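Why do we bother with a discrete structure alphabet at all? Because it lets us treat a fold like text: something you can write down, compare, and reason about line by line. To make this less abstract, here is a complete entry for Zinc-dependent alcohol dehydrogenase family protein. Read it the way you would read a sentence in a foreign language you are learning: slowly, and without expecting to understand everything at once.
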Amino acid sequence: MHAVVYHGPGRKSWEEVPKPSIQDDTDAVVKVDSVTICGTDLHILKGDVPAVTEGRILGHEAVGTVESVGSGVKNLSPGDRVLVSCITACGSCRFCREARYGQCLGGGGWILGHLVDGTQAEYVRVPFADTSTFAIPAGVTDEEVLMLADIGPTGYEVGVLNGHVRPGDVVAVVGAGPIGLSSIMGAKLFSPAHVVAIDLAESRLEAAKRVGADVVVNATHDDALEVVRGLTDGLGADVAIEAVGVPGTFEQCAALVRPGGTVANVGVHGKPATLHLEDLWIRDVTITTGLVDTYSTPTLLRLLASRQLDLGQLVTHRFGLGDFMQAYEVFANAADTQALKVVLSARS
């Protein structure tokens, strides 16, 4: 089969590799039907994730068809159509019992495309298949479901739920990329008074409007703090969601939040950010962080099937499965290509 193989910082290739097989009795081998590229994959290619070693197949999101299962797999059969989650769960360790699957101690967590071979391939081995895949509801497309492999639950859990968004809140989302847009859509489920999207790119702010942002702020020439305070009698946002992952946007969120409010950090940070405790401590500000656990995926699948959630609109570019080099180029240059999510399909 063919797969995207990492060969060190800045180097990858679509090349022929051995097809995966069942290694443990809880494994499944899944034929990849649709797959996407994540911002985390770009971090890996920059050398920001040293645990990813040369020769690793990248990718941690896919929709596919089960080809074979181990003798210990109870809930899957060959031919089943499944969502392969970005988080793998052993299902029995302390953290899995608490639904903190991202912190799995039994060999799971974020391992696909990180510690074991991932999904940017024609086939993928999925460990702990019963607890790491989800059956796909009837009537939804591969593209729609694929958005729940990572960005859907990430924005919802780490942004909206960690941020404790409530009806009537003013929610500021800093960063209108795929995660920020997912956070906006998740926040709208809780009937906030206003959702404010803040970004530097007009194309992403237009996308934010399409998915439900009430107010958009181009931080290149507008003062986001002034806009948010104008909506809140000078107090600041009830919830500020950081969806970029650079020091400046984290510090901006801390400035935007009201006394007693919450900063929910979703972005993946590669550098330290300054925490102004000298200002924050007296304002009763809560700061949350987190790796997605995907405990919300069943809920989001129901919302998708009932058409109360439309994450499929985030897909902007489509490719055949063999066009990974071109797809990476488009995704990595989003400022020029206006890419949000790219989807590669074996059926293209």
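What the structure line is telling us, in plain words: The chain has 13 helices and 15 strands. The radius of gyration is 20 Å.
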